[in-house]
Amino acid sequence: MGLFFHACKRLRFATVIALQRLFSMFPNGLPGAGLLLLRLVCGVLTIAGAARTIIAAPYLQTVVLSVIAFGASLLLLAGLWTPIAGICVSVFEAWAAVSRFTGIEDAVLLATLGAALAALGPGAHSIDARLYGRKRIEIQND
Predict the structure, then answer these.
(1) pLDDT tens track for 128-137
(2) End-to-end distance of the chain based on CA atoms, in angstroms?
(3) Is 123 left (phi over 0), alpha (psi -120 to 50) or beta?
(4) Given a cut of 70, is residue 6 above it in pLDDT?
(5) I want to staple 129 with a disulfide (CB 3.0 to 4.6 A). Which of 22, 26, 66, 104 is the partner?
């Protein structure tokens, strides 16, 4: 039992270190507000497109991909697992751009936003920053 607990603790530590290494910092101030705005715009527009596709989709594959995009957009809005959510949004929107012949501008823009958010990170106003962000430890001398 002790070995299992030690392995789980080590895995959790590795996950935290991996996400901290993925983003060197979670910017605050104007850059953090800008990332929050990008997340909100990308998430809301992708949710609207995915909901529209789920309602009108004739094929099961389209519905499944739209449900995944809907879930990824919710994660993007919350700022949780931002790299994974950004990649999922990018894949969904790239698929949407390739599968239609007209009106691909919005899909290309949202795919680019998703890729940029996956690369830049969520910013300080996110669940990722609360869970995996840098912690300040103050040591008091007695």
Answers:
(1) 888 887 767 7
(2) 39
(3) left
(4) no
(5) 26
Most confident of 9-18, 20-29, 69-78: 69-78
pLDDT score of 62: 85
Q: Which of 117, 49, 134 is nearest to 78 (CA)?
A: 117
Using left for φ > 0, alpha for ψ between -120 and 50, and beta otherwise, residue 84 falls in alpha
Domain assignments of the chain as residue spans, ordered by start: 25-132
**35: Cβ contacts below 8 Å, ≥ 6 apart:** 27, 117, 120, 121, 122, 123, 125, 126
| Nearest residue to 39 via CA among 126, 128, 133 | 126
> Over pLDDT 90: what percentage of the chain?
44
Contact 104, 49 (CB under 8 A): no
Identify the helix (H) or strand (E) that includes residue 123: none
